[in-house]
Structures are given as structure tokens and as C-alpha cells.
Amino acid sequence: MKIDFSIKKYLFILICLIGFIPTINAATNNDVSQTKVLDLKDTVEDIDLEFKGTNYKEADDQVVVYLFRMEDCTHCHDAIKFFNDIVEEYGDKFKMRSFEISKVSANNELYKKVYEYLKIKEGVPLILIGESVFRGFKEDTKDKIKTAIEKNYENKITYDIFDAMERSQEEKKKPASIIIFAFIGLILIIIILIFAKKE
Fold first, then answer.
1. 37-159: in CATH 3.40.30.10
2. Is 128 exposed, middle or buried (0-12, 13-18, 19+ CB in 10 A)?
3. Domain spans of the chain?
């Protein structure tokens, strides 16, 4: 069976389209592999404070506190000092994942995705505890943070911002994937029809 040049051209286009699908998926991926994440102790020591959690240990059942911060942000330093001050009382209930966004570009990109997902204005520190969002740090924020830690810990709330973002991204990908596969299917039908007419 001999395939003429026009059929080869259509097959080439189809193969290129199929090869393009992984590129589309990669472009919408929430890749956090290049981020630099610090735990509570390292975050405290990163701003040259002595860590107060002498008996502090991370555990699976602790609430994750996400902190997006900048090196020269005084409110960020105040927030870190606060978490260091409450580590003896609340340390069994929370652990920290801290992202410094002014020096690590991958952390900054992740921060942008987070505030866009949450539909909030930029601002640091950005503190996320379960579904509670704290942008900035003031005196009245302290009690709200303690309450959020206790509520999430006591109620075993497992909401995680990154899991929610990933689920949202997957939901956005579904319609695009359907359109892509429908388009490829249409091209295949056209190629088959053209090939059938040639015979």
C-alpha cells in the first residue's frame, strides 16, 4: 500500500499534535521541586534567633503552618518571633513550612500562585493555617493564629492549600484535555476520509 505525500503530511501533523500534549500538561503543573522550604527551627535560626523549642518535635498529626516571608520584612520577623515564643505551649500542635520569597525565585513563583489562587492582594507575611489566611502581622493577629492552630489541631482538619491548588488545577485541565483529544480525533477522521477517497 502506497501512501501519497498529502497523507504523510497529515500524519506528520497528527504526530506533532500528540507530541504537544505533554507540553501542555507540563505548562500547567504546580511544580514545587525547586522551592527552598525551611521548618520552624531553621526559620527561627534564619533570622538569627535562638530556637526556644527545646523539646519540639514534628509529627504527622500536627497542623502545617505555611509562612511566605521576605528577608528584610520586619512584620515577617515579628511573626517568626511570635511562633518561636509559642513553640513551648503550642509546639505539639503545629509545624512550619517557611518560604523566603525575596531570595528564592521558585518560592516567589509559588507565592504568586498561592495568592492568585486565594484571590488576595500581595503582602507578607502570608500565613496559612488550614483554610485560615493571615496577610500581614499585627498584635491582634496573634490570638487569631493561636485559635486557628487549636481549631485545626483539635478538629483534625487536614485541609492543605497545595492539595487544594492541585485539585483545582486538575479540574481546569479536564476541559482542555477533552478539547485536545476531540481535535485529534477530528483530524484522525479527516485523514481516514481523505485516505478512503484516494482508494
1. yes
2. buried
3. 5-28+175-198, 37-159
